[in-house]
Amino acid sequence: MMNTRSLRFRITAWYAGLLAGTLMVFGASVYLGLERYLDWTLQRTLVAECRTIATQLLSQLPAKDTAWLATEIDEAYAPEVNGLFIRVVHQNTGVVYLSGTPKDGTFEPWQIPFPRDKEMDGARKLQFESGNRLLINSMTVVTPAGNRFTVESGAPYHQIEVVLHGLLLTLAIYMPFVVSLAVAGGYWLMRRSLQPVDEITKRAEGITSTNLSERLPVIRSGDELERLSMSLNRMIERLDNAFEHINRFSADASHELRTPLTILQLELEGIAQNHRWDGALGDQIGSALEETHRMSRIVESLLAISRLDAGEVKMDKARLDLGELAASTAAEMKLLAEEKSIGLHVHAETGVHVVGDRVRLQQIIVNLIDNSIKYTQVGGKIELRVGEEGNNAVLEVSDNGLGIPAHALPHVFERFYRADKARSRATGGAGLGLSIVKAICAAHNADIKVSSQEGRGSSFRVELPLMPVFADDGASAALREI
Ligand SMILES: Nc1ncnc2c1ncn2[C@@H]1O[C@H](COP(=O)(O)OP(=O)(O)O)[C@@H](O)[C@H]1O
Ligand SMILES: [Mg+2]
Fold first, then answer.
1. What CATH number does residue 242 fall under?
2. In terms of domains, do 126 and 231 share one?
3. Whose CA is nearest to atom 21 of ligand 1?
């Protein structure tokens, strides 16, 4: 969950950064390109102006006078109105024409310096204190009559700046808007396309060895996600097969061992009965017989677990009162507890109805109490509680015995696991009791938890779904009356 979220954020952030960067570069090149283009256009206009003045007006000069020139230029260009600067200088007599102060007063024509030698026949930029700028083009002209003039024509830069500012403003307003729109859209798309990944993750978390028959949802998108979900499913299928294989093996192995073991047992019993052995040989036969009994129990347990795990056992499920079952089972085991002077106290509510296999549920209680007796010192205390909590029936077996070390706690439900091998062997356990309990719980949709403190005692807690009320005879009769 966390990971896809950060992936989503990371990709969106990259995407936004890339987009903003691209737009920025794009905006900058548009700005610079436009600036150069406008600059170039203005300059060409000024050059054309100079040329027109030279060819059409100055060429007639000796014939016409300077007053005529002034009227012609003012008429043609109206420099004051248009904010233009025009100056014509004769090589010998000096200024023959100078435009007036423009209406907007951006500059004073008489203050404008003459072009230096290297500025002749080219453009120059002037900056005034007011911040206004003027682009001036100057041109040297020799008339057919042999007179030499310098013609200058200038226009304010202002118009170009207005256009560029407008562009800048547009970019500044629209760029964040476009970027945020694209980011929001991108994030939404990303979320939509990654949603199936969240789903797969959630489902995959829930798959354990007990529900390997389940499959992940396959996204029919025809892309990488579909392939991923399909190959994950194939992997789960292979695991499922492998697990089934293992289960089959232990079921088959224990099944095959059963018959020879029974024969061996019968043979030994026959020998023990038909001959009156005395001394050492009698003892040996007795102990061999005991070992075959032990082996038989292990094989039976193993077979039971394998079958339960494989779901092969047909449960004889019926409605039963868990409180009553616990009380009667505890009563049967009281003697066993008393042998070790252990007090077995029962606090069982009656009427805690569940649906289950009576014999198997009883086995859970027997195994748990049996463990408590085995792993509690003489004079200890065992408590058996049955009650209801929410929609569950709760059965709890607690003792104040030896307890289970923290490192062993996660393993007690594993097959053949014993926290203290030496001690457990002496008490006759093979480490299969809790595995059976766990398998029966699984077959009843029940949950089992253990908590323990070494030296203080242990507590096993089984939570079993209560029987739904509508299936209860009394209640459904009452419902029918309504
Ligand atoms: N009530 C208990 N108190 C202390 N340890 C326990 C208790 N119940 C189970 N255990 C530990 O869990 C192990 C597994 O229990 P189980 O599967 O019943 O095997 P077994 O009883 O044959 O040893 C035991 O060997 C023991 O170490
Ligand atoms: Mg046991």
1. 1.10.287.130
2. no
3. 429
